[in-house]
Amino acid sequence: MTYLAKPKLHHPDLPRNALGYTRRDYEGAVSTLCAGCGHDSISAAIIQAFFELNIAPHRVAKLSGIGCSSKTPTYFLGNSHGFNSVHGRMPSVLTGAALANRDLIYLGVSGDGDSASIGLGQFAHVLRRGVNMVYIVENNGVYGLTKGQFSATADKGSKSKRGAANDDEPIDLVMLALTLGATFVARGFSGDKPQLVPLIRAAVEHNGAAFIDVVSPCVAFNNHSGSTKSYDYVRDHNEAVNRLDFISSRSEITAAYAPGAKQDVLLHDGSTMRLRKLDADYDASDKSAAMAFLESRRAAGEVVTGLLYLNPDARDMHSMLATTDSPLNALSDTELVPGDEALAKVNASLR
Ligand SMILES: Cc1ncc(C[n+]2csc(CCOP(=O)(O)OP(=O)(O)O)c2C)c(N)n1
Ligand code: SF4
Ligand SMILES: [Mg+2]
User: For ligand 1, what atom is nearest to the CA of residue 71?
Assistant: First the structure.
C-alpha cells in the first residue's frame, strides 16, 4: 500500500498556533519509510517549523524528485500544493512554478542521488539564479530507494552493504552551494531537531535561494561504522558552529547572551535571526573564511553543522528579472494581451 490515511480524530486540547491550526494540520499521510530512517525526522522538523511560523498550509508548494527522500512530501503538509517530479528535475519544475506564482512559499525536497548525481546540473542553476525557495537535501550517501548503490556524496573508500568499495571522491553539497552563489547555506543532522527546526524557519524567511544539507542516515544501507552519514559517526563528530534563535517581528527580544557570543541579523520582514556562536572564530557572513574553515574541519573528519553562510542583502530571481509583482494567474486579459500599440512599441525598441 502506498498511501495510508491517518485517523482524523485528535485531542481537543492540542496546542494551536496563531492561525488556530494544530500540528496535525501540518501532517501528511503515515510514512511508509523504514523505521528509524532519518528522513522521517526531517519531515517532523518541517511540520514543526511551518506550525511555529504560523503559515497556512495552502500557501506552501512542496516539490521533489525521485527517491525515499523525494517521497517524504507525502508525509508532511498534506494540505499544501505538491508536485513529485522526475529524478533530478525538481529544480526546473520549482523554478517554473515560482516564476508563474510568486505568492507561494516554495519548498524543494531532494536526496543526494537526486541532487548530487543525476540532478547536479539542475541543482547548480537553481542556486545561482537565486530562486526564492528552501532547498533541502536529505543526504544519506546512498541511493536508498534503489537498494543502496553509492551516490555522489558517498565517502571515498567506504564499503557498500554488499562489500564493494567506493573509489570516487565525494561531492560536498555545502561547499558547492557556497561556490554557486546560494545566499543562505546550512547543514543540519536529522537527529538534532532543536538545531534543524530554527534552520528551516530561518530558511523560509530568507529572500533568495536557501539551501540546507541535512545528514540523514539510511538505516537499511548506509548506517555502518565506515560511513560519515551514520548516526554514530555524526553524533561523535558533529561540530556545531552556531545555534539559531528566530525572533518574529512581533516578539520582544528577551534572550540574553554574553557579549561576543551572539550575532543578530535583521531580516527583510522585520524579524531577527539570532546566532549564538559556539565557535568564536566562525563568521557566517564571511564566505571565503567559511569555506576555508569547512575544508579544514572536513580534513579533520568533523561534520560541521549550523548556519554556515548568510547574505542578509540577498536578491531573489524576481527582483533580478524585474518581473511583475502579481502572480501570472492574477493578471487580467488586458494586462496579458496589451494590444497592437504595445507590441509595436516593443518591436520598435528592438530595431
Ligand atoms: C531517470 C531515472 N534514472 C534512475 C532512476 C532510478 N532511481 C530512483 S531513485 C534513485 C536514487 C535515489 O537516491 P537519493 O536521491 O539519494 O534518495 P534516497 O532514496 O537515498 O533518499 C534512482 C537512481 C529513476 N527513477 N529515474
Ligand atoms: S531505504 Fe534507507 S533511505 Fe529509504 S526508507 Fe529505508 S532507511 Fe530510509
Ligand atoms: Mg540518498
Answer: 21
pLDDT digits (tens, 9 = 90+) for 118-141: 999 999 999 999 999 999 999 999
| CA 89–ligand 1 middle distance (angstroms) | 11
Query: Which residue's CA lies nearest to atom 17 of ligand 1?
Result: 67
Overall average pLDDT of the 51-64 stretch: 97
124 lines ligand 2 (CB under 6 A): no
37 CB-contact burial (10 Å; exposed 0-12 / middle 13-18 / buried 19+):
buried
Q: For residue 134, list its beta bridge partners.
A: 107, 210
Phi, psi of 16 (to 5 degrees): -115, 150
Lookup result for grid cell 511508509: 32
DSSP 116: I
Which helix (H) or strand (E) segment holds residue 340: the answer is helix 340-350
Pick from 36, 34, 12: which is nearest to 22 by CA? 12
Q: How many other C-beta atoms lie within 10 A of the C-beta of residue 329?
A: 8
Nearest CA to ligand 1 atom 25: 87
- Separation CA 19–CA 7 (nearest Å): 22
pLDDT for 256 equals: 45
The partner residues of 240 in beta bridges, in order of sequence, read: 305
Type of residue at 243? R
Task: For residues 112 and 128, give the distance between their C-alpha atoms in angstroms, rounded to a whole number.
Answer: 19
Three cell numbers, residue 64: 521533489
Who surrounds ion ligand 3 at CB < 5 A? 111-113, 140
Would the CB of 217 count as within 6 Å of ligand 1?
A: no
Which residues have a Cβ under 8 Å from the Cβ of 30 and sit 6 or more positions away?
A: 4, 5, 6, 75
Give pLDDT, residue 8: 76
How far apart CA 246 and CA 188 sit, in angstroms, is: 16
Sign of CA dihedral 45, 199, 66, 103: positive
